[in-house]
From TrEMBL:
GO terms for cellular component: DNA-directed RNA polymerase complex. The keyword Transcription applies. This is S1 motif domain-containing protein. Keywords: DNA-directed RNA polymerase, Transcription. InterPro entries: RNA_pol_Rpb7-like_N_sf. Gene3D superfamilies: RNA polymerase Rpb7-like, N-terminal domain.
Length: 212
């Protein structure tokens, strides 16, 4: 099952966006009666983190240690369990077509350049492949070295639920495409907020049996 984007599906802005967007999600969480108490909020956050952090969900890759509960509903008792609707913030990575991202080249082969986006904590939410065929007439492409920071324009993305990173197909971009006024570097500047609640997005997590 492939995911879909919850952001804009295409962008032509010549900006380097941050690898993550702050997002607002809604998730149904079930706790046992024994988990209900003064530490209810902490138990809800732990359950959410275990379900979604460090992996891909429908909305994209969720950064580890980034979930924070905004509010949650009164519990609905179901036998020995209690169901809660939880609204929480988290950092989501999901590059879209046309977006400019910075990454580091890892290996260079006859087929193309394999690169990675590495965040400030060392997590790799995105792997990038730049096909030589997409840059056959680009002199700069042949001058790229391993472990060099490069600028890539996203052509397409692919990932499945629970993947540990997003795969991006991209094309080598050039710094001259940017202007000083519209640069947004990987780890700097204010990043736009993505509010999925406005689209009535409800995140339903699949159990291990459902995924099969």
């Amino acid at each position: 099952m492939y995911s879909y984007t919850t952001m804009q599906k295409h962008t032509t802005d010549n900006k380097i966006y941050g690898v993550y967007l702050k997002s607002l999600l809604n998730l149904k969480i079930t706790l046992s009666i024994t988990e209900i108490g003064n530490n209810l909020k902490q138990n809800l956050e732990k359950k959410i983190a275990a379900k979604i952090e460090g992996k891909c969900i429908v909305q994209g890759f969720i950064k580890p240690n980034s979930t924070h509960i905004v509010n949650y509903s009164s519990g609905n008792v179901n036998s020995a369990f209690v169901d809660f609707q939880v609204v929480f913030e988290c950092m989501v990575c999901h590059p879209v077509e046309g977006m400019l991202i910075e990454c580091k080249s890892k290996t260079i082969t006859k087929a193309g350049i394999h690169a990675e986006v590495v965040d400030e904590t060392g997590i790799v939410p995105v792997t990038v492949f730049i096909a030589r065929d997409h840059n056959y007439n680009d002199v700069t492409f042949n001058n790229v070295k391993e472990n060099e920071t490069i600028l890539v324009r996203v052509i397409g993305t692919r990932f499945e639920l629970n993947d540990s990173y997003i795969c991006v197909i991209g094309k080598l971009a050039h710094r001259r495409e940017l202007t000083t006024s519209n640069k947004k570097y990987l780890d700097g500047g204010e990043k736009p907020r993505l509010n999925l609640m406005e689209e009535n997005v409800t995140l339903e997590m699949l159990s291990s049996d459902d995924e099969k």
